[in-house]
Amino acid sequence: MQNSLTQLYKSSLVLLTDFYQLTMAYGYWKAGIHENEAVFYHSFRKAPFNGQYAICAGLARLIEYLLCFQFTADDIAYLAGLKDSQGKTLFNADFLSYLQQLTFSCDIDAIEEGSVVFPQQPLVRVKGPLLQCQLLESILLNIINFQTLIATSAARLLQATRGEPVLEFGLRRAQGFDGALMASRAAYIGGCAATSNVLAGKLFNIPLRGTQSHSWVLCFATELEAFRSYARAFPDRCIFLVDTYNSLEGVKNAIQIAEELKSDGFKLAGIRLDSGDLAYLSQQARQLLDQAGYKEAIIVASNDLDPLVISSLKEQGASINVWGVGTHLITAYEQPALEGVYKLSAIKSPQGEWQNKLKLSEQMIKISTPGILSVRRFYADKRDGLAMADVIYDERSGISDNEALLIIDPSDPTKRRSIPAHTPHRDLLQAIFRKGQLVYKVPSLKSSQEKTHTQLQQFHESIRRLLNPHFYPVGLEKNLYDLKLELILKAKAASNSRI
């Protein structure tokens, strides 16, 4: 696979981490537990945008990072120069030598990009030496959280447009060029038809779309002259931006140019509205275009669009065929961060026995889940039919297909669901790395986009709706729930005894 990270960044990325990951790694090494086998998992606590689901994205970029995971001589030299508050060297030479010789050797299991996922589920599971698992936390969260958020935002836009094309126009409003590139990629996975970001098109093979800006029109003496010049430059794909002066007059000018150049083989592809009352203007523009015989000409709309604005425009009968979305998509404007977390769930003792681990909190939603976690999706009629429930379980104990299954919501134990025996199902976590070696074939970005579309159709429309979506059952397998509750009670009892 082509590694876009090494194309963009010539320096090592292994130090793209939080400082305390390195200090903890040093502490593990000093304590002699750095090679102890551990299991961490990544999940998110609440679905973004007040919805029910998210679209998983970012795995391919995480794979790229792991394939070039190595402390370079330059990295080690930088770390060797770090001092503590007394001016003493922070990390000793033996530890730095260990880091320089470190080779990635973890097992990684993950849910594929384009998959529909829900809160509390393990999206990525990391199993391996404790020090390595710890060092992956920050970058894993950075990559998966952001791209999952943007892919979800794009999917919601497609829900609002009722499947009509959405173009990602966000480069100029993105948080930095890396944010723009990764957002363009994730937006495509979520369902966007194309991007305006040329570098994203080059790196990720995303289709490019764009028309012209108001500055183009302003560079000519008249709007007619501007349109005429553009039509001569791009006779086969001309979409005119009509709102520089007066939107409806702009539509009439677009029609005039189309008539002028018709004999030269010019065909009006469409017009774009970027301001004003988009519902009214699109209806009037459609009428003008149809009356002139340009019924196939499309109307593209932009101007601070978001899912709710688009839904409103659809309800008003707007005659818009293609939707250009920038700020609200590229920045995840309505929710700027996914509540993704990375938690230790099990570690091997010196005797080689697994010890379950749990992070306690006063809030149930923030209490982590112990074990070597996996997730299974059940379907109502056939495998990959309509999804009915997801269960999180401990891989060590597994789930019997021959027995009915009880799942319990970890945040609200009154929410329970019984799954009959022999219900069609699919395990969502896929093997990605084994002992540091890539064993997964990364699909094309187009395939991941198609997966998003296919998977969304496997959920009832009430679960996908933008406002007040219906609840989708996700819970812990009963034995895992009982284990978690037992550990919570033990931890609280131990905590109270120390007060």
TrEMBL record:
It catalyses: 5-phospho-alpha-D-ribose 1-diphosphate + nicotinate + ATP + H2O = nicotinate beta-D-ribonucleotide + ADP + phosphate + diphosphate. Residues 376-484 form the Nicotinate phosphoribosyltransferase C-terminal domain. Transiently phosphorylated on a His residue during the reaction cycle. Phosphorylation strongly increases the affinity for substrates and increases the rate of nicotinate D-ribonucleotide production. Dephosphorylation regenerates the low-affinity form of the enzyme, leading to product release. Pfam families: NAPRTase, NAPRTase_C, NAPRTase_N. One of its GO terms (cellular component) is cytosol. Gene3D superfamilies: Aldolase class I (3.20.20.70), nicotinate phosphoribosyltransferase (3.20.140.10). Pathway: Cofactor biosynthesis; NAD(+) biosynthesis; nicotinate D-ribonucleotide from nicotinate: step 1/1. InterPro entries: Aldolase_TIM (IPR013785), N/Namide_PRibTrfase (IPR041525), NAPRTase_C (IPR041619), NAPRTase_N (IPR040727), Nic_PRibTrfase-Fam (IPR007229), Nic_PRibTrfase_pncB (IPR006405), Nicotinate_pribotase-like_C (IPR036068). One of its GO terms (biological process) is NAD+ biosynthetic process via the salvage pathway. Transmembrane segments: none annotated. CDD domains: NAPRTase_A. Residues 15-145 form the Nicotinate phosphoribosyltransferase N-terminal domain. The keyword Transferase applies. Keywords: Glycosyltransferase, Ligase, Phosphoprotein, Pyridine nucleotide biosynthesis, Transferase. It comes from the Bacteria. Catalyzes the first step in the biosynthesis of NAD from nicotinic acid, the ATP-dependent synthesis of beta-nicotinate D-ribonucleotide from nicotinate and 5-phospho-D-ribose 1-phosphate. This is Nicotinate phosphoribosyltransferase. It comes from Candidatus Aquirickettsiella gammari. The lineage of its organism: Bacteria, Pseudomonadati, Pseudomonadota, Gammaproteobacteria, Legionellales.
